[in-house]
Amino acid sequence: MDEDIVAMLLTALVIFVPVAGITLRFALKPIVDSIARLMEARAHNSGAELMEKRLALFEQELQAVRAELSRVAERSEFYDRLATERLANGAVERGAAERPRSALPAR
Questions:
Q1: For residue 62, what are the contacts with CB-CB under 8 A and spacing of at least 6?
Q2: Buried-state track 34-69, b at ≥16 Cβ within 10 A, e below 16
Q3: What is the torsion angle, in degrees rounded to the nearest 10, for the CA atoms of residue 95, residue 96, residue 99 and residue 100?
Q4: What is the rounded average pLDDT for all residues in the chain?
Q5: pLDDT tens, 65-93?
Q6: What is the Cα–Cα distance from 74 to 90, expressed in whole angstroms?
Q7: Rounded average pLDDT over 1-22
Q8: Which of the four pLDDT bands, split at 50, 70 and 90, describes residue 26?
């Protein structure tokens, strides 16, 4: 009787293990594939998110450079106007100062 039980268990195991393995392989393959695709998509999305962050940082830096360039241009225009006004005022003052001397009658 013990030999019959062992033979039956051995036969069941010899048949059951390969059948169970093949069944599990076909049952789990779609699940494993979907998990692999999900992990791949997350990796791709994290790369895209990193690229978006880098692009946003680059845009902020570009705006800062534009603002600084605008301030430099305004400062340059201010100094140009100031120099032009000083030259014009200096020429007017020199012209006004020279005229009375030349306008005086010679003795």
A1: none
A2: eeeeeeeeeeeeeeeeeeeeeeeeeeeeeeeeeeee
A3: -160
A4: 84
A5: 999 999 999 999 999 999 999 888 876 66
A6: 24
A7: 87
A8: confident
DSSP-H helix ranges across 1-107: 2-103
The end-to-end CA distance of the chain, in Å, is 157
3-state class (DSSP) for residue 54: helix
Displacement of CA 34 from its chain's centroid (Å): 30
Q: Which two tokens stand for residue 37?
A: 């695709």
CA 33 – CA 23 distance, rounded (Å): 16
- 38: tokens are 């999900």
Sign of CA dihedral 6, 9, 15, 18: negative
Q: Express each pLDDT in 30-69 by its tens digit.
A: 888 999 998 888 877 777 888 899 999 999 999 999 999 9
